[in-house]
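Model: You mentioned two targets. I'll fold them one after the other.
Researcher: Yes, keep them separate.
Model: Target one:
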Amino acid sequence: MITGLGIDLVEVSRIAFAMRNPRFVLRVLTPSERLQPLTYEYVAGRWAAKEAIAKAWPAQLFWQDVEILNDPSGQPVASIKGENMGVLVSITHTQSHAAAVAVVQ
């Protein structure tokens, strides 16, 4: 049963501007997420996914509560506070925008 649905869209240029401050990435991405190449599109996609999950989740979440890693096939897999909590997420981006959809089951 679906209990929550969230969507988010962000301009990549907005994230690129925010990344001028090194604390931004440390605040938004978990240590494991920071192991990937930190392109503007990657960070914008993670931002959008975390925002979409926060909109779908029934309680308040903080940036470090949500981690989005890729499985071996490249599909994003979300965990909340280190556990797989039945959240499905999809991320897409172009050079100018990143978007994500999250479904809580």
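Model: Target two:
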Amino acid sequence: MKDQKIRLSHHDSRWLQEYEQMRSCLLDACQGWVTATEHIGSTAIRTAIAQPCIDILAGIQDEAGIPEAAMLIEGLSYRTVALPEWCEGETAICLQKPRNGMPTHRVILTLWKGALWHRVARMKLWLETHPEDVRRLIQVKMHLLQSTYTIEGYEQGKGIFFSALDDQISAQENRE
């Protein structure tokens, strides 16, 4: 992953179709373990720019099924990778589907309606309804693209943005 080049694209209408296809594959392959999926990340937001990798949140009702579901997803040419920093400390497994060394799809396997599920779904809804924050995210991504040469630096920079946005959302919820 260290040698990956950061590549950003404007929204591609095929991303939703790819998500739907992978959703169907996941639900079928996981034999009932995965009960819900959500298209997340910038490829799910029509006005954002994104790395061309479809991010999927896959929910399981029983924590004991996470390892079994991960093994079944690996059968779809995925491989288990380290959790992204924003998932650390959560009950989750991350799997990626690489093509020519670059991930094309990433699945975060976690508890349906658990803390991680709630946080990610809340963030997606916020970005769908707050275009000014999507514009800020695009500015952050463009700055990171110009100022960092590593995927790790790019991901850390986005993490700072999303952590601040999560705090902003929590503050807004507390005021309501």
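Researcher: Noted. Anything on target two?
Model: The chain has a mean pLDDT of 92.
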